[in-house]
């Protein structure tokens, strides 16, 4: 088998050829071609269910299937698996088509599972006639009970041996709408003792008296996904049906259904699975995304905080960045969590090349250049993009009064403050060198105005000796007389935890970031007056921003796409360092006198309560326990002062910590463990005997006092 191949690849809007190593999906295709499959029989599909908007996980699947189509010059169908009218809408169909095309792909044919409802029904009639399907009239509870468990076989339905005639009659009446939902279902007759639960007489049809977005009210019964999906692949002569890893147990059923209808003169679809790529600090479950929308945690499916393709697009992500991300993470056989920082890297990389540089001030303070003439204004040259020579220059207005960022000035600055302060010089981007002179404050002591002077010979690019003078920093600014007011939406990650839906004991909504959106009024340079929806810019020194669809000719609205650097990575490193520092300093705690211990405890409490990374805290708590006082006190402090609680951990982990802590040689460890047990009534009951025994030999007064309070 060849593990390298020259492939056509679609990158940044152009076709290129490259030699690349093959992933396991491509190796499967190459092996099939080697074993006789004709290359003109290759056909792929992207099969979304139209029950929500596509998310970043779908972007990877789109890139895989359409990328294979480009690599092998094979057609790719866009097929909507629209078998559940209770959850599907035309809005979702339209959004999916829009997203696929925006990503830069075009399908060969637009198909729908509903196109095949009659054929699926006809095949089902043949199943019944051959004794391979029957109508079951049990309740859902009865069916669940007789289906067994993974370790115990199921039992046959009392309706499993209905006659062919009775099954045909009931199924026809189901189709005609004579029965209410839930009264009957049609099941395949396979094997109730199968080790694969999905093979235990799976449901083929259920009654749903719902309006379908394409077939209207023509049908009262709808095929189940497992029945419709493989057969739709077969009808369309899809050669390879790629799906995510959770469908691996479904492969046996996929093949069983095909066995019943397969004609050797046709291509038989092959299902193979690849790993889902989860993205940190978000969710990629349609159900959970729908919950975020329905419960108003976000403002719709295209909210820029959402992991939907529409949301990412609105936030300012480019199709090229999403394609590059999908191709960059590749295809794997195991599920894993991709750090969202990698996605942010790809958008920074793309926008750095293409986004014009402009100046905007988001937290303005007025600066008056006192020696600049009051009526004077200049239009200065500013480079549009140093990464793109063809981008040219634009003119920006300069005047006596400008806005700068409030954080760019400090009245009494430390030596390492490289921005403006009194008596210190900085350069204004594209303009002059200024020096802080004095400030004006309001009655509360807040700075309302900064006064500075400028060096008249220091204009950027003028070539004068003064213009080449080195100063400590460069500030962006906007001329007040020419500034345009704009609403700026500062988006942050929607969840504070890297894997918000991975904690069984927690509702993922507990991790919604309360600071995921901050709206400010800023000021932008006048060149942005005609900016249109989805236009992208780098606000110098601030990040990349995109014009939102809410913008009007009277009011500009910008979304922050991404910062110039990864603030979350910095915070994550800061959290890790804080925990490492606590772990290092725990040893000294035992040597301190009472006053210093109290101070140290207060510092530990402040540090631990300030860490929002739930997963990091949980990992620290659950890592292998050492039976020494330092490690035990460290874990007890995490339980006492951080955001994790006893209810977040399994009983065995907690009981191991409590047992070792109560036996510790250190009274500080024992007392901290007792404090934690007081807040954990479930485990407190389990330790009554050990606590009673402790009272008999405990000598430390503080520990005795705590024991008496129990």
From TrEMBL:
InterPro entries: aa-tRNA-synth_I_CS, Gln-tRNA-synth, Gln/Glu-tRNA_Ligase, Gln_tRNA_ligase_bac, Glu/Gln-tRNA-synth, Glu/Gln-tRNA-synth_Ib_cat-dom, Glu/Gln-tRNA-synth_Ib_codon-bd, Rbsml_bL25/Gln-tRNA_synth_N. Residues 474-548 form the tRNA synthetases class I (E and Q) anti-codon binding domain. Residues 41-352 form the Glutamyl/glutaminyl-tRNA synthetase class Ib catalytic domain. Residues 140-161 are annotated as: Disordered. Its main location: cytoplasm. Keywords: Aminoacyl-tRNA synthetase, ATP-binding, Cytoplasm, Ligase, Nucleotide-binding, Protein biosynthesis. A motif ('HIGH' region) lies at residues 48-58. Signal peptide: none annotated. GO terms for molecular function: ATP binding; glutamine-tRNA ligase activity. Belongs to the class-I aminoacyl-tRNA synthetase family. This is Glutamine--tRNA ligase. The lineage of its organism: Bacteria, Pseudomonadati, Bacteroidota, Flavobacteriia, Flavobacteriales.
């Amino acid at each position: 088998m060849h593990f390298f191949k020259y492939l056509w690849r679609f990158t940044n809007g152009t076709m290129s050829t490259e030699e690349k190593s093959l992933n396991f999906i491509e190796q499967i295709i190459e092996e099939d071609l080697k074993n006789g499959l004709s290359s003109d029989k290759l056909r792929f599909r992207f099969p979304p269910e139209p029950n929500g908007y596509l998310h970043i996980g779908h972007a990877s699947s789109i890139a895989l299937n359409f990328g294979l189509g480009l690599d092998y010059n094979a057609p790719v169908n866009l097929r909507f698996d629209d078998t559940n009218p209770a959850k599907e809408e035309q809005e979702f169909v339209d959004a999916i088509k829009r997203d696929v095309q925006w990503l830069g792909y075009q399908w060969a044919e637009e198909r729908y599972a509903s196109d095949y409802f009659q054929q699926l029904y006809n095949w089902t009639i043949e199943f019944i006639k051959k004794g391979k399907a029957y109508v079951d009239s049990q309740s859902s509870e009865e069916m669940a009970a007789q289906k067994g468990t993974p370790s115990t076989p199921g039992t046959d339905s009392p309706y499993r041996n209905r006659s062919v005639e009775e099954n045909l009659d009931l199924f026809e009446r189901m189709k005609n709408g004579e029965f209410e939902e839930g009264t009957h279902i049609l099941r395949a007759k396979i094997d109730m003792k199968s080790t694969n639960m999905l093979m235990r007489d799976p449901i083929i049809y259920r009654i749903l008296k719902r309006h379908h977005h394409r077939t209207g009210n023509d049908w009262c019964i709808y095929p189940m996904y497992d029945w419709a999906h493989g057969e739709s692949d077969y009808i369309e002569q899809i050669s390879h049906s790629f799906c995510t890893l959770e469908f691996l147990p479904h492969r046996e059923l996929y093949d069983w259904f095909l066995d019943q209808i397969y004609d050797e003169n046709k291509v038989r679809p092959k299902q193979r699975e690849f790993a889902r790529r989860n993205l940190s600090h978000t969710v990629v479950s349609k159900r959970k995304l729908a919950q975020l929308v329905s419960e108003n945690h976000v403002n719709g499916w295209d909210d820029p905080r959402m992991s939907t393709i529409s949301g990412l697009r609105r936030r300012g992500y480019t199709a090229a960045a999403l394609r590059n991300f999908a191709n960059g993470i590749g295809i794997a056989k195991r599920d894993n969590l991709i750090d969202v920082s990698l996605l942010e890297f790809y958008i920074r990389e793309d926008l750095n090349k293409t986004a014009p540089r402009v100046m905007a001030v988001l937290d303005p303070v007025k600066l008056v250049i006192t020696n600049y003439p009051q009526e004077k204004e200049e239009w200065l040259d500013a480079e549009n993009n140093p990464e793109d020579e063809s981008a040219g220059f634009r003119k920006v207005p300069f005047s006596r009064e400008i806005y700068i960022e409030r954080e760019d000035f400090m009245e009494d600055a430390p030596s390492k403050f490289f921005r403006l302060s009194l008596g210190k010089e900085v350069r204004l981007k594209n303009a002059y060198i200024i020096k802080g002179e004095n400030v004006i404050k309001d009655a509360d002591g807040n700075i309302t105005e900064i006064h500075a002077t400028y060096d008249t010979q220091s204009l950027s690019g003028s070539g004068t000796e003064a213009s080449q003078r080195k100063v400590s920093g460069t500030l962006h600014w906007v001329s007040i007389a020419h500034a345009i007011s704009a609403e700026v939406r500062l988006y942050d990650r929607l969840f504070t935890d890297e894997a918000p839906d991975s904690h069984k004991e927690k509702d993922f909504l507990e991790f919604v970031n309360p600071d995921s959106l901050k709206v400010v009024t800023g000021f932008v340079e006048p060149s942005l007056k005609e900016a249109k929806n989805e236009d992208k810019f780098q606000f110098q020194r601030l990040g990349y921003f995109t014009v939102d669809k809410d913008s009007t000719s009277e009011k500009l609205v910008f979304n922050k796409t991404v910062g110039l650097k990864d603030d979350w990575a910095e915070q994550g490193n800061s959290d890790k360092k804080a925990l490492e520092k606590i772990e290092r300093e725990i040893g000294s705690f035992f040597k301190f006198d009472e006053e210093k211990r109290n101070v140290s405890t207060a510092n530990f409490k402040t540090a631990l309560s300030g860490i929002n990374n739930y997963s990091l805290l949980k990992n620290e708590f659950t890592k292998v326990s050492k039976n020494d006082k330092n490690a035990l006190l460290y874990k007890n402090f995490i339980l006492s002062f951080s955001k994790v609680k006893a209810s977040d951990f399994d009983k065995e982990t907690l009981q191991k910590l409590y047992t070792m802590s109560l036996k510790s040689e250190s009274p500080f460890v024992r007392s901290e463990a007792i404090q934690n047990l007081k807040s954990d009534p479930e485990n407190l009951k389990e330790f009554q005997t050990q606590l009673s025994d402790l009272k008999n030999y405990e000598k430390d007064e503080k520990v005795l006092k705590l024991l008496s309070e129990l």
